């Protein structure tokens, strides 16, 4: 059994062959030994390999059944596969490489072939790092454990976040929810909470939507970092295509959430443009972003509308808000802490009701003169910081002008004090005095020059006669401005008397034109009152030429109230100046009141002279209602709010605007869509629809609630909700 000259003896070959044949077919495949390795003269272990005494006891390789080939011919000096022998001249005891000449590796370096171990980086679910492995690396085990731990943490966070959202919707407790999120930790996953909160609210009622928006505003920057809020909304927009499968109105609802986030300053406006670039043009996410930008954020007074779209200011009544305003002003006067006062104003979340803050602060400044400077400083800072906008400032001062006479009963020289407050605010630049109604200090009336009055009467008669021919109201206004440059109240009253006197001697067309002109004149209400008083005082003389003067004057008076030229209390003022109960003036007032008390008085008085005014034929009531219904329907389907206001104004029926209020409110309750509510806000804010018409409209809805409940089961509940909102917005008196 000696190796000589690179050849194997016959005896050794026979022993080697018998060892191979006696091997267990399930044992490790025998190593293939090249002649070259057997020719090593100094290898004492080579005979043990040839006999392979232990191979039958190691059943580890399923590839053993392959038939091993006999060693190559001894005449071959070298084997091309000899490099597969491992070690430095010795063979490993448990070497796993096959003795078969066939290479078990898949072709072209692939992986996953039959009988192979897979790719270099392929691992299965049972993979683990063996610390006894010679190639063991502790960092590898750390990476894999961190990955598994991170996945587990996120899954746990998702489950707890859903529970927190569900509990919040059940309890409406922002403080408790905030504490639970802090305890949960993991601020890096907060974006998922934002996404889950909004997506769950989208599939619920308006109450939950409002709760979600309020919670996000409360948690922003305090519990949830701004980048996490941004990321959460980004993921919501990208998942719009999936959300719409379960929530059909995803585009509108998610767009409103985005707009609300922008209004609440928890999302930058640039979010819309940045996200739009990263989305496919045909995705629902793009529709959401466009709807938010063009449908909500571009509309006038969009902030107020968006804040109240889902109810806003929930669980607040007008009285509650007023009480909180009084308390914060009292605390500010005592402490002088402007930052704290501004924070309290911001926490009220009623930007549309800030005029009440202005009004109460002014009243307190007039009652407590020592606190005047401090209160004016607060209003100035709130105005400069944009906390109270200029519109609310002007509205607050305007409400004070209307009530300053009542304040005079409790505050001596209230008018003079208030005039000084206006001057200070205007001089400091945070009040536009030109936007306010005039506040006179009631100077002594100067006697009107008789000759000037006579000349004006002649010119007024010429202006009126020309108007009856042309129907040009703008020309009348320009002529009056030229003739009455001093805006004399006496001359205005003379014009009113002359207009009605000339109209009573003419046909119904001219009477209708006179009423339309009265509603278009920019005279103070007192001038109209004085004009009607002069008419009633001269009614006895007028009756000599016009036997039906009582009926005509009563109809003009009633029409003036319907057109809101005069207020109901003005009739009482006119009646107080009548001479006696049997005078013509008393009869005129009595008939005017009976006309106004009749059922559907507005429509009847409208048509008494043909309606429509000027040279145009009058509208029938049904035609007007049809026009109102069509313009509301057109606006609801995506029209322009300015165009809708223009159409309402062109109807030329300010006394019939309560029908607009009624139809808009009923449609809002039926369809649960507050787009028309936004139109009412714009109309009231611009003065197109007055408080009187708002009250009439709401009153007519209240009368028809029983019938409406047949189609809208929760009509009474909705109506109560909208009445509270209207009171907060100043549309309705608190006594409604």
From TrEMBL:
GO cellular component terms, A-Z: cytoplasm
Region (Disordered): 1-116, 128-151
Annotated keywords: Cytoplasm, Nucleus, Repeat, Translation regulation
Residue span(s) of domain MI: 156-277, 320-441, 455-576, 623-736
Primary location group: cytoplasm
Compartments, as annotated in UniProt: Cytoplasm
Keyword Nucleus included in the entry's annotation: yes
Biased composition annotated in UniProt, kind: Low complexity: 29-79
Keyword Nucleus on entry: yes
Gene Ontology biological process: negative regulation of DNA-templated transcription; regulation of translation
Gene3D superfamilies: 1.25.40.180
Basic and acidic residues bias spans: 141-151
Family the entry assigns: Belongs to the PDCD4 family.
UniProt name for this protein: MI domain-containing protein
